[in-house]
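Posting here for the record, re: magnesium ion.
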Amino acid sequence: MRAGEFELINKIRRRASVGPEIRLGIGDDCSSIVVPPNYELLTSTDLLLEGVHFCLDWTDLYSLGIKSVAVNISDLAAMGAKPVSLHLAVGLPASFSDEQVEQFLNGVFAGLERYEVTLAGGDTSRSVGPLVISVTVQGFCHKDQVITRGGAGVGDDLWVSGTLGDSGLALHFLQSNRPLSAFLAARHYRPEARAVLGQRLAIENLATAMLDLSDGLSGDLRHLLNASAVGARVELERLPLSNEFKDELQMDQSLLDLALCGGEDYELLFTAKPKMRDSLEQLSVAINLPLCRIGEVTSTPELSLVMANGLIYQPRSSAFDHFGSTKDRSRE
Ligand SMILES: [Mg+2]
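Prediction output follows.
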């Protein structure tokens, strides 16, 4: 038997720290956030559905709680915003025990602490179906520093953080009943939002356009190119790949598609003027996160994935298909 909703909300409220920007947090009809002068409040919402975005046979609830926070913080990072508050709405299956709810909340609070975000409100309900998680995050960005998808210019360099395809490779392993290494499990179950990188790019005015990679490089890059009305040339031999990914790729070249279309990388993809190369390399060292220049922005409005031999590569899959679902899971 699970605790009542009021008891649950009180429990959550007791655990929620309140940051200085939150005038009113959990407990009133609305939360209230004080936006500093000359800053904008950026907001993003994400829906995570059991059976579509995650599978409880494969993930533990603690990791799912952390991930629910991280994937939303990633959207704030993608525009250069500093995360401030998070609202959480959950539909909990009637079959869930108090312990299961606790495990999920422990993960959520670990995520909140990790990114120094206040849980400022939300809602809970019993779900007659699967677990439903809706997270809304808000953050601040100086009004002159917000990085949109629409600012890429012809001749800009194309950059990506971290490594690509690890989460897709993990899912591929899970689907083939292969065990995951600690590295792949972390990349898949507990992705790290690039919050510091996003903010530094904004504050130091280093990027012209940006987004986070949730659906895979090839699909997400097209969103950026469309928004900026430009094209791009990506050199595949430059793609940043982990050692584990490279080892698998040696045995099966078709796995390259996971780095291009695998989804759930939660790395930042951004464009920058070539004169910013030194500054970006310094930033990479300063925040201890690899940044890799993978191509350039072109005037022809198409995306060319160029192989080492100069030929154009065509990925086999163009969209990430989680659990065989046909639901469009592209995220804003
Ligand atoms: Mg996004």
